[in-house]
């Protein structure tokens, strides 16, 4: 049984948490008592509403960092101004769907930069705090695409497979210091990221919207249901608990059975 405020006194930084999975994870960590730094792009007024709502709902401190995950200096600044970093959730991510021989080079580079290189910079900046504390939790929100591939997603699949490797390597480096490093690999979760790739997938595969949802997205998931944001957040919450102290270097699916095929 996980008591309600088990993360009181901890500082958690969640990248890309103005939307989707990251917001769900940030709210879960705040609910358990952590002070939370949210981050991401978007409308300033809407972000301030999200930030204030977390403080109101959970009675914990919530700070917003506008750091762009394309900029290593801003990533370092986000960690330095967080007031410590006990929990780091590398969640910010982007997607682009295209045949590889038509893949725009700037899109490919941006996907690698945000999905893979940004977690490296955040981990590098956060680890000294965790080592000093003798405790830390790093959770990389990877994807089922860290384990298997799909066509037309070369950059995304490459970035997420890279995140799996980064996770394992860092976990080995810090395993004896009370710090766990894991990757969560969701299947399809209904968020703006999934919504936005439907038109490109329709074009790339010549399908209708309904066909993309039923025959492409959910075709891979034996449960025939989208994974819920709250399920991913609960999984991350468990990895932050003492009960998960021996889980490290793991690349953990939560994808309705997709990779059991
Ligand atoms: P989303 O689009 O709802 O949220 C992405 C977040 O990243 C937003 O807060 C956005 O502002 C932020 N972001 C994007 N570019 C940024 C940048 N340059 N700097 C800072 N922040 C930036 O997406 P989501 O579906 O919640 O995805 C979150 C993570 O989960 C991603 O890493 C994604 O690859 C992964 N994931 C999603 C699914 C899914 O089905 N939705 C499945 C598996 C993995």
Quick synopsis:
This protein is of the alpha/beta class.
How many helical elements?
A: 8
- Helix-strand pattern: EHEHEHEHEHEHHHE
Major beta-sheet overview: 7 strands, parallel
Span of the ends, CA to CA: 32 Å
The CATH superfamily turns out to be: NAD(P)-binding Rossmann-like Domain
The figure for the number of domains is 1
Structural class: alpha/beta
The CATH topology corresponds to Rossmann fold
Shape by Cα distribution: globular
What is the top-level CATH class? Answer: Alpha Beta
Number of strands: 7
Molecules bound to protein: nicotinamide-adenine-dinucleotide
Low-confidence stretches: none
Which architecture does the CATH hierarchy give at level 2? 3-Layer(aba) Sandwich
Across the major sheet, the strand order is: 3-2-1-4-5-6-7
Beta-strand residue fraction: 5-15%
Task: Reconstruct the topology from this structure.
Elements: E1 11-14, H1 20-31, E2 35-39, H2 44-58, E3 62-65, H3 72-80, E4 87-90, H4 105-133, E5 136-141, H5 154-174, E6 179-186, H6 192-205, H7 209-217, H8 229-239, E7 251-254
Parallel strand pairs: 1-2, 1-4, 2-3, 4-5, 5-6, 6-7
The chain binds nicotinamide-adenine-dinucleotide.
